[in-house]
Amino acid sequence: QPSQSTADTRRFQADLLAVCGVFRVVPSARPMGAVSSRRVSGFDLASVTTNARAIERDARDARRDHDPYYFLIQQLSGIAHMWHHDHRAKVGPGDFYLVSSTRPALFRYEGVSVQASLHLPRATMAEAFGHHPSAGLHLPAGSVMGRALNRALNRLDDSPDEIIELLAISARNAEDRDLRLTDLALRLIERRAADPGFGPAALAESLDVSLRSLQRALSTAGVSASAAIQDHRMRSVRALLRARPGMTIAACAEAAGFPDISRFTREFRAQHGLTPGQFRTTPA
Fold first, then answer.
1. How confident is the model at residue 137 (pLDDT cuts 50, 70, 90)?
2. What pLDDT score was predicted for residue 2?
3. Between β-strands 54-57 and 138-139, what pairing exists: parallel, antiparallel or unpaired?
4. Which of 158, 121, 165, 163 is nearest to 41 (CA)?
5. CA distance 87 to 105
6. Burial level of 57, CB count in 10 A (0-12/13-18/19+)?
7. 3-state secondary structure (DSSP) of residue 42
8. Mean pLDDT of the 31-54 span
9. How far apart are CA 59 and CA 57, in angstroms?
10. pTM score over 0.90
11. Which one of 12, 78, 131, 162 is most buried, by most CB atoms within 10 A?
12. Three-state SS for 230?
């Protein structure tokens, strides 16, 4: 529930505890703060406004929180200096920073800061991609990933899984904090090609770029968006035809992302010189 702006540091810290967990506030000379939260697609989305000198939690504070979360923090305005899990970053407007509730953290502020914090249960994150992401990820607003995350956050009501998907890609490429547009596009194709409604336009929208910009970027890798999607679907259906003899050809095609079985059969034969059925019975 929303909280009015207050000059009472104890009240602000209590509101912060209720919404975000155990954090300690180091107030400024003239303290001001407000905390609000709402539920969006099963996740808590908090807003924290403060002019505190710092907000912090040590290992003991972290142990006092019973439910482990990741906080995906977006700096909406102001500047924050964040220390977390041996990582340090200066976080400006629009930037994202990923924080684990199970580890100590320190946030120092330059004047008034406004942040949004999306609370992601660790169990949900682990189920989505098999391991916990690296805490301390800093994703600048102007980066390819930062723009994609911003769009996904704005569409949280409609597509809650996009945030988890993008963070999974970020965590697995933690050494390359600013993935190129081509790299991220190809990784999203790997994850979404099985959706028959997924195409170049949907890919460009997810990346918050124009279709023309996307095609130009992919052309440097010698590929088009449609060809990359088609290639991934073909590789998937070939694997299914070999590995799942009990599945019908139509079911294999649908699982790989082909929306039209007749068109799939024509395209498969044109590419492989065999029908899907002949391919299935031909020794590997």
1. confident
2. 44
3. unpaired
4. 158
5. 10
6. buried
7. coil
8. 93
9. 7
10. no
11. 12
12. helix
